[in-house]
Amino acid sequence: MKHVMRWVAPLLLALPLGIACSSTDPENDPAEPTDDESRLRNEIFEENASGKADNADCSGVVLPDQSGFNKRVAITFDDGPHLDNTPRVLDVLAAHHATATFFINGKGVRTAQHRDLLKRMHEAGHIIGNHSQNHANLKTVSAATLKAEIEGTHQILLDVGVKPAFFRFPYGSSSCATAETVRSYGYAVTGWHIDSADWCFAASRGGVGYCDPATFQHVPNSYRSDIAGFVLSQARAKGGGVLLFHDVHAYTVGVLDSILTKLENDGFRFVGLDDVDTFPRLNGKKPASSPFIGSACEDHDDCNFTAVNEAGFCQTYEGGGFCSISCNGTCPDKAGMAPTFCVSLDGNSGQCVAKSSAANGYCADLPGTTAKPMSRFIGTSSAPASTADVCVP
Ligand SMILES: [Zn+2]
């Protein structure tokens, strides 16, 4: 209420003078969370932390990538844009040479200034995602409302030149049906690993940086007045991951520089949500397992290995590719992988291919190949003549 009162006077003055509302209308920090919002946030935190969540791609908070972050952190902000606080967030990010992702609510994009702010974010290299139009609990709305909630913000982003790829459910609250609907628009559902709980630190006791247990129970007592410590402890436990803030709180702007500095001093680096190495599954890729002869590949980078002193390369063909090395009669095998065989695909030189075996689903793991009998490429070796069923295009 205090915030509202503060702005009544300037508005009363401004309106009779005919000053355009849209350019002088200041934005308030959001109201304190309702009991319902607190309850939802507590539930979602438990879902994320305890493994209670489903593993069927229905959760709005559990990410498909859960490890292997290699001390890389993707910073994300929800609920903006905010004309006062978001630009200050952008300044802090620029000082740290960090790009972030902003999940916006369409209802907050009310003026040309808001649209200009979105364009500035986009031009600075930040990712802008969809956080729904009105920030409702989408698990409980009708199918028609769900579509309107997605499409409203989707259109706003298209109008400012952004093709959004990431969606975050308000409160992380999703069901299998809502997640499926969101994906049908081409979005990746994006939860988080590290919850700053900045909304709680910002809300309790007038924003002095104390998170009240009655508002949010999941901050250990030692961190009740230490948001940076709370963030760092989670980042260390996870080895990195997706970090959640809200750029609508002046409190968050005030502590952001110190949190980012502490993370950097601890060896963390900042990446975008679209960093495929850090978040392969979120970006629709299989995580890189250590490649070997017969691993599926798209380019030579996917075959970054050496075997019997030969460098791996990606043999591409229409519809796919597999990793290979050149050979002269024989090829090395590796436990857990399909056995290999030296053949010539060009009639001149030898290269290793995978035999058709259970380990590669009898060639099903290598799209575009089928099992075909081929003769060994003997080359200058003394290997005996032989044939085998191998996976080749
Ligand atoms: Zn939100």
Q: Please bin the fraction of helical residues.
A: 25-40%
Level-2 CATH architecture of the largest domain: Alpha-Beta Barrel
Spatial shape: elongated
What is the class of the largest domain in the CATH system?
Alpha Beta
Average pLDDT metric: 89
Q: What is CATH's topology name of the largest domain?
A: TIM Barrel
Radius of gyration: 26 Å
The hetero molecules present are:
zinc ion
Low-confidence stretches: 1-25
Q: Give the beta-strand count.
A: 17
- What count of helical segments does DSSP give? 10
Query: Which structural class matches the secondary elements?
Result: alpha/beta
**Beta-strand content:** 15-25%
| CATH superfamily grouping of the largest domain | Glycoside hydrolase/deacetylase
In words, what does this structure look like?
By secondary structure, the chain is of the alpha/beta class. Helix 4 (85-95) runs parallel beside helix 10 (250-265) and helix 9 (227-238) crosses helix 10. The protein is 30% helix and 17% strand. The radius of gyration is 26 Å and the shape is elongated. It has helices spanning 2-14, 21-24, 35-50, 85-95, 112-123, 143-159, 176-184, 198-203, 227-238, 250-265; strands at residues 72-78, 100-104, 127-130, 166-167, 188-189, 194-195, 240-246, 269-270, 306-307, 310-311, 313-317, 320-324, 326-327, 340-343, 350-354, 370-375, 387-392. It is built from 10 helices and 17 strands. The strands form 6 sheets. Strands 1, 2, 3, 6, 7 and 8 form a 6-stranded parallel β-sheet that branches. Strands 13-15-14 form a 3-stranded antiparallel β-sheet, with no helix packed on it. Mean pLDDT is 89; it is low at 1-25. The protein has 3 domains: 1-31, no CATH class; 32-270, Glycoside hydrolase/deacetylase (TIM Barrel); 300-392, no CATH class. It binds zinc ion (ZN). Zinc ion is lined by residues 78-79, 131, 135, 170.
